[in-house]
Structure formats: C-alpha cells, structure tokens
C-alpha cells in the first residue's frame, strides 16, 4: 500500500490521514486502499495480457483471504471471478454482485446443501478433492436433474518451502488427490452421468516467494492433462491455484506478479485451455493495514511491553504462524522537531491531553494485545519511540486479517473502512458488545 507522510498529520493512505480515521471510526480499525486493491488486480490483468492470456485467463479471487462485501464488489466490478470454499462464501459473492459463472468452488469438505446451492447458482466449476466427493456430487446433481462441472484438485507432491500450516501440496496434506490416483479417478468421473469433466486444479501452498515449486507442479499437471486428452477426456481449463507471496518485511521482497507468473505462463503459452488463477493474499494483503492505539506502556527488566487495543482476535497471523507484520508509528515518527512543538501548542490551546509531552526515546518493545494468552502478540522487539495514546499501523494486514478475526475474550470485531482518494467509507461497522451474545440464551428458570 502506498503510504505517505505529511505535515502535520503523519501517515496518509491516498488522501486521508490515518489520525483522522482513528478519530472518526475509533481503533482498532482495518483500513483498506481502493487504489491499492485495484492496482493489485491490474497487476495480474496486465501480466496476463502481456503474455497473450488476455482472453483466456480468469482471475478468481480467493475469497477466504478477505471476504468483505466491499472488496468482493470492487473485484467483481473489475471483472474478477471468485474462488470460494463454503456456501457462506457463495452467498457473499452473489450478494456482492459476483457472477456465478465465474465462481470455482474449492475445499476438502463440501456439504450436500453447499453442493445444491452452488449447482442452483450455476457456478463455473467444482474443484473436487476426493473420490467420495465425486460420488456425492454426482448424486446431488442427479437429484437436481443437472450436471456438475468438475475439476480434480491434484496433489503434485512438491514442497512449496513455506510455513507448514500454509503448505498444501505435499503427500501428507489433507488436500487434493494423489497424482498416481488422479488418472483413474478422472476416468471414473467421466463415466458418471451427472458430472462434466472440465479441468484440473492444483494449489500447493501460500506465501510463495519463488515460482519454481509452482512451475514444477505445473509440469506434472500438464503431463496428466495430456494423458487425459489421449484417453478422450479433454480438459477445457487449467487452474493453477493461488499462493503468490507478498512482501511483509523490508528485507524480504516479493517478486512482481509478472515475474512470478512468467515461468508458469511459459509452460501454458502454446496450449489451448482456459487458464484459471486463484490469488488471494497477493490481491489484498498489501492493500490493508490495522490501525491500533497504544493503551498502556509497561517497561520491564527483561522486556518492555506496549499493550495496544488490537489483539490476536483481530489479527491472528503472528500468534498462528509466528508471522511478521511491519509496525509503524502513524504520528510523529520522522517528523521534525518543529512539528512536535507545534503539536503540543496546538493541543495545549485546544485543551486536549498531550501524549507528545511524554514522548520516550526509541526502545525495544513487545507489541501485544490485551487478550489473556501469552501468544497474544502482534510484533516482537520493535524499535519504536512510543508513548501511551500513540497510533500504530500494522502493515500488510489486508489478507487473513479480518477474515480470521474472532470474538475471543468477548471482544467486538474491529471496524473496517476503505479509503478512496480523499473519501473514506465505513464498510463494516464495529460490532457492539450486546451483539456478541445476542444469539445466546440462559437455561429456563427452575
Ligand atoms: C487459500 C487458497 C487460495 C489462495 O491462496 P493465497 O495464498 O491467498 O493466494 C487459492 N486456492 C485455494 C484452493 C486455497 O485454499
């Protein structure tokens, strides 16, 4: 995301100061940039167009990365399709204006109700992950008097060299169909009356910074596609999955989309199949940040703790994967001394409390939330000059941030806003505490 610093308000996203967002919407608050989302989508579109895939590539945004209606609607308007993993995501995509015929349905466990809903909507394809799912889908499609379009998600057994929790393409993974078993299963699928074999699908993992494993997987996928064509099971599309990584740390750059896709597209360029891509993180990750405020500073002998009002329930990635998110000060980080004193005067005049007067020098801080878990941290050992009341921006939080948020500790989920030029729109209001137990009941009296 493009952040700029500007006198006197510190960090800006597009034309909006983050301090203004905090004042208007409170913290913690997820902030997205419309321009950054659109730019990420164009990055894919342009890379595909440049390689001659303009007319035969379908970008299916992986909804699970961030299922916000506003974000889905934005991508739908740009022409995107969607990769869903549940009936809930199907309903969201349709509510956001997504087109059913551009939806692919992934996931190892689809219920009959979900199959029915997706068939009724008329989705592009089911990415089937087991023999049993084929049988069930054939039966459900039969009951509805229709035919289900399918791909098999194969497991190419390549190591994506990413975090084990987001590695999905090794033999011991619960995902996909073993390469050795796939050919026979395709033959079986082709014999079932209520299935229409359309494609092949593979997704080996997430946050991949090197395209080599995906290219290696593609070789195996294409070899199988050729074998199937010989056996009179021609495929009309090849789904390369998602997984392209993003830059989280200044010293760990991510490739451009064009560079990442190049070796994969090279293998597909003289073929005829439609290309389906399922990017999630790379479309939204760097288009969002989590805005939070320092509540309490607790310097200690071993460690200094800065307790902020966002926590693991808002952003689980650090607790779950030990993931790194860059954390920057929104206010006076690099600002000149004159700014500091101006601010103080300004606050003194307006009668507001001045945090700045308590400004500390830079120290090492553990940035933690208020949740009662030692795993509740957002960043370790961050050198920041912090004072209570400071605003912090936790960067690269657009993917798997709000999507994984929970109400743990009965904490209302954060507000979400989208900046669009010099406008800012509330796209999800902050939850209220009473809403968090509104669905519950106590036992009857007596
Ligand atoms: C999660 C997932 C994606 C998206 O992965 P990213 O790493 O966010 O791009 C795509 N396809 C499938 C099947 C997935 O499970």
Automatic annotation (TrEMBL):
Residues 53-284 form the Orn/DAP/Arg decarboxylase 2 N-terminal domain. The keyword Lyase applies. The active site is at 372 (proton donor). One of its GO terms (biological process) is lysine biosynthetic process via diaminopimelate. The keyword Amino-acid biosynthesis applies. It catalyses: meso-2,6-diaminopimelate + H(+) = L-lysine + CO2. Keywords: Amino-acid biosynthesis, Decarboxylase, Lyase, Lysine biosynthesis, Pyridoxal phosphate. Pathway: Amino-acid biosynthesis; L-lysine biosynthesis via DAP pathway; L-lysine from DL-2,6-diaminopimelate: step 1/1. Gene3D superfamilies: Alanine racemase, Lyase, Ornithine Decarboxylase, Chain A, domain 1. It holds the Pfam family Orn_Arg_deC_N. Its EC number is 4.1.1.20. Residues 29-398 form the Orn/DAP/Arg decarboxylase 2 C-terminal domain. PROSITE patterns: ODR_DC_2_2. Substrate binds at residues 281, 317, 321, 373, 400. Pyridoxal 5'-phosphate binds at residues 243, 278-281, 400. InterPro entries: Ala_racemase/Decarboxylase_C (IPR009006), DAP_deCOOHase_LysA (IPR002986), De-COase2_C (IPR022643), De-COase2_CS (IPR022657), De-COase2_N (IPR022644), Orn/DAP/Arg_de-COase (IPR000183), PLP-binding_barrel (IPR029066). It comes from the Bacteria. Belongs to the Orn/Lys/Arg decarboxylase class-II family. LysA subfamily. Homodimer. This is Diaminopimelate decarboxylase. It comes from Rugosibacter aromaticivorans.
């Amino acid at each position: 995301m493009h952040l700029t610093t500007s006198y006197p308000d510190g960090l800006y996203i597009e034309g909006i100061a983050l301090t203004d967002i905090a004042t208007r919407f409170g913290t913690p608050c997820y902030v997205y940039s419309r321009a950054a989302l659109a730019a990420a989508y164009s990055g894919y579109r342009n890379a595909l167009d440049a390689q001659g895939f303009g007319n035969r590539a379908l970008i299916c945004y992986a909804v699970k990365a961030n299922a916000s209606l506003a974000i889905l609607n934005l991508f739908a308007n740009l022409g995107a399709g969607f990769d869903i993993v549940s009936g809930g995501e199907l309903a969201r995509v349709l509510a956001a204006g997504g087109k059913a015929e551009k939806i692919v349905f992934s996931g190892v466990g689809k219920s009959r109700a979900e199959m029915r809903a997706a068939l009724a909507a008329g989705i592009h394809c089911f990415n089937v992950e087991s023999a049993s799912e084929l049988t069930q889908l054939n039966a459900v499609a039969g009951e509805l008097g229709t035919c289900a379009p399918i791909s098999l998600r194969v497991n190419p057994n390549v190591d994506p060299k990413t975090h084990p929790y987001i590695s999905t393409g090794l033999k011991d993974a619960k995902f996909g169909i073993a390469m050795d078993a796939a050919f026979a299963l395709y033959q079986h699928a082709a014999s079932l009356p209520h299935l229409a074999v359309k494609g092949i699908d593979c997704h080996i993992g997430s946050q991949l910074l090197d395209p080599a494993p995906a290219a290696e997987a593609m070789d195996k996928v294409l070899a199988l596609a050729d074998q199937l064509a010989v056996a009179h099971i021609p495929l009309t599309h090849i789904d390369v999955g998602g997984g392209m990584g993003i830059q989280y740390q200044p010293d760990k750059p991510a490739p451009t989309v064009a560079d990442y896709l190049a070796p994969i597209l090279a293998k597909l360029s003289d073929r005829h199949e439609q290309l389906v891509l399922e990017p999630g993180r790379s479309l939204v990750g760097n288009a969002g940040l989590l805005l939070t405020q320092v509540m309490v500073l607790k310097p200690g002998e071993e460690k200094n703790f800065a307790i902020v009002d966002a926590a693991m329930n808002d952003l689980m990635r650090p607790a779950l994967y030990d993931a790194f998110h860059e954390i920057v000060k929104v206010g006076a980080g690099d600002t000149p001394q004159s700014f500091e004193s101006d601010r103080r005067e300004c606050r003194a005049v307006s009668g507001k409390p001045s945090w700045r007067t308590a400004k500390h020098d830079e120290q090492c801080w553990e940035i933690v939330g208020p949740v009662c878990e030692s795993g509740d941290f957002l960043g370790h050992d961050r050198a920041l000059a912090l004072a209570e009341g400071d605003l912090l921006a936790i960067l690269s939080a657009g993917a798997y941030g709000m999507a994984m948020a929970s109400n743990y500790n009965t904490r209302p989920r954060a507000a979400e806003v989208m900046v669009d030029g010099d406008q800012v729109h509330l796209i999800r209001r902050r939850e209220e505490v009473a809403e968090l137990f509104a669905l519950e009941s106590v036992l009857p009296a007596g």
